[in-house]
Amino acid sequence: MGGSLAGALRGQCDAVVGVARRAETIDTALERGLIDGGTTELRSVTQGFDVVIFAVPVRAIVRMLHEFGPAFQPGCLVMDLGSTKTHIVAAMETLPRGVQPIGGHPMCGKETAGIESADPSIYSGCAFVLTPLLRTSDEARTLSLELVQSIGGYPLVLAPDRHDRLVATVSHLPYLIACALVATGQDAAASDPAVWEIAASGFSDMTRLSASDVTMMSDILLTNRDEVLRAFNVFEGQFRNLAQLLTSSDETGLQAALSSVRDCRVELS
Amino acid sequence: MGGSLAGALRGQCDAVVGVARRAETIDTALERGLIDGGTTELRSVTQGFDVVIFAVPVRAIVRMLHEFGPAFQPGCLVMDLGSTKTHIVAAMETLPRGVQPIGGHPMCGKETAGIESADPSIYSGCAFVLTPLLRTSDEARTLSLELVQSIGGYPLVLAPDRHDRLVATVSHLPYLIACALVATGQDAAASDPAVWEIAASGFSDMTRLSASDVTMMSDILLTNRDEVLRAFNVFEGQFRNLAQLLTSSDETGLQAALSSVRDCRVELS
After folding, report:
1. pLDDT at B115 (0 to 100)
2. Strand partners, B79
3. Are A206 and B202 in contact (CB under 8 A)?
4. Chain A contact present for B252, CB below 8 A
5. pLDDT, tens digit, for every residue of B103-140?
6. Whose CA is closest to B104, among B81, B78, B138?
7. Mean pLDDT of each 10-residue bin along chain A, 269 residues long
8. Which of A54, A97, A248, B54 is the most exposed place for a label (fewest CB within 10 A)?
9. What are phi and psi of A133, to 5 degrees?
10. Is A157 helix (H, G, I), strand (E, B) or coil?
């Protein structure tokens, strides 16, 4: 996500500098034309940049904000791409006076992570959540909106807890469902391997998310645990409602429930 | 599915004749070049054809087999495209001696039904389940295999109850999950409509099946009820296992479970 964003921003600002732990990452980003320059000196993020954007897992962002935060200079816009916002925004509150924090989360991405998968076009037409803090200045808010629009995204300003509640439903719950569905297939395959031979495009679409990076996803789930579990409870209730209509062979009730859902889904697409 | 199959078979046999209730369906199929001829006289299916393939909902196939079955002539291959097989094969058992029944279910399709959506190419590269009966002759089995291969599908011979158990896991359960996920989104949208604004491609993929035809899907679910409910119980157990690991913030256990699933899914694709 960071490499993709660097590539999308390059040419739209004076210079895009990549900061990464591994020199290979910087080399690849330079070769692919994603950055103007780069360094493996993580601490340099605090030195002289107008905008700093953290594109690492949620808990790594929180650690870095605590580690490097005190060294940021007033006026610097400190942003991130973390998939959950409550913990990050809480850490941003501890930044020195005058530093301008704002949370960010683009609602796009790929199953494949790493600089090799970077694609500057992924932000085009994509919702980009921004979670400003009370302390964030109007100038910093405007700059963040311009940044999102410059890469083709459309900004959506939300409070961090509201963001986390919504993504639990539309993103984290679907991931866990995809995983549980693959596990159900594995269970069936244990007694009959033919299950994989007849799995068609529908099953494939329904399980695509389960191929996501496990370290990244467990970081996301553990930093949004309560909302994810709450969304699961709602989902389980909805599923049990459908299962109950099926158990009682209530065709009229089943068709009414399925039709309501179908109308909603057709309207969305 | 019937129009698609007719189009795929046309030119590979002497003549493909479409039989439908509505004259408009026949007209459209003729205009689109899917059939050589057609009729709205349903009873004509019993008269002089070498192969008859029923492409209507499961319970309609069962009704038609009982209604027209006694009039079929010995040697006629009677096949179907129904999505569940146990009820259909049971009805096929009642066909007159010498009639050659075989169940069929191509593991492909579209969310959109009807002759307007017909696409003869959908069978290419697709698994096509065949469920011969004990009474089905070797010649009829061979003819059905040739039929499937002639349209680019690969035949998969299964017992009807085994077919129904497998599709419950890879097809019917995913449909109900997609529906319950949309219903969960509707529940969230009732208190915060922004949920639809941040739903991205992952949510879209995970709910695509919920746009399927409701009449067709309820017919399928009700003719495979016990297997669908059994698959749901397995799925619920798998989901609860993941939820429990999350509840207890057991990151090691969570990552192990998610990695096992991810490895399986990556290998499938």
Report:
1. 87
2. B53, B102
3. no
4. no
5. 999 998 766 678 888 999 999 999 999 999 999 999 99
6. B81
7. 94 94 96 96 92 96 96 96 97 97 90 82 94 98 97 96 97 98 97 92 93 95 98 98 98 98 93
8. A97
9. -95, 165
10. strand
Q: A258–B214: do the CB atoms touch at under 8 Å? A: yes
B10 forms beta bridges with: B13
Tell me the three state secondary structure of residue A260: helix
Pairing state between β B127-132 and B77-80: unpaired
State the pLDDT at residue A111.
61
Task: ipTM value, please give it.
Answer: 0.92
Give me the residue from B126, B214, B268 closest to A259, CB to CB: B214
* pLDDT, tens digit (0-9, with 9 covering 90-100), for B82-100: 999 999 999 999 999 999 9
Q: Determine the distance from the C-alpha atom of residue A128 to the mean position of all C-alpha atoms in its chain, rounded to a whole number.
A: 10
The CA distance from A26 to A20, in Å, is: 7
Of B158, B214, B264, the CB nearest to A255: B214
Render the burial of B192-211: b for 16+ CB within 10 Å, e for the rest.
eebbbbbbbebbebbbbbbb
**What is the C-alpha radius of gyration for chain B, rounded to an integer number of angstroms?**
21
Question: Across the interface, do A192 and B162 touch by the CB < 8 Å criterion?
Answer: yes
Secondary structure (DSSP) of A49-76: -SEEEE-S-HHHHHHHHHHHGGGPPTT-
What backbone torsions phi and psi does residue A132 show, to the nearest 5 degrees? -65, 155
Would you call A248 an interface residue with chain B, using a CB distance cutoff of 8 Å?
Answer: no
A191 touches chain B (CB under 8 A): no
Please name the amino acid found at residue B118: A
Number of C-beta neighbours around residue B30 at 10 A: 14
Contact B182 A265 (CB under 8 A): yes
Q: What's the pLDDT score for residue B263?
A: 97
What CA–CA distance (Å, rounded) separates B1 from A263?
Answer: 23
Q: Six-digit token pair at A15?
A: 């210079």
Answer yes or no: are the C-beta atoms of B26 and B40 closer than 8 Å: yes
Q: Output the DSSP codes for A215-234.
A: HHHHHHHHTSHHHHHHHHHH
* A154 in Cβ contact with A148 (< 8 Å): yes
> Structure tokens of A21?
């732990």
Chain B residues touching A269 at Cβ < 8 A: 204, 211
Q: Do the Cβ atoms of B218 and A254 come within 8 Å?
A: yes
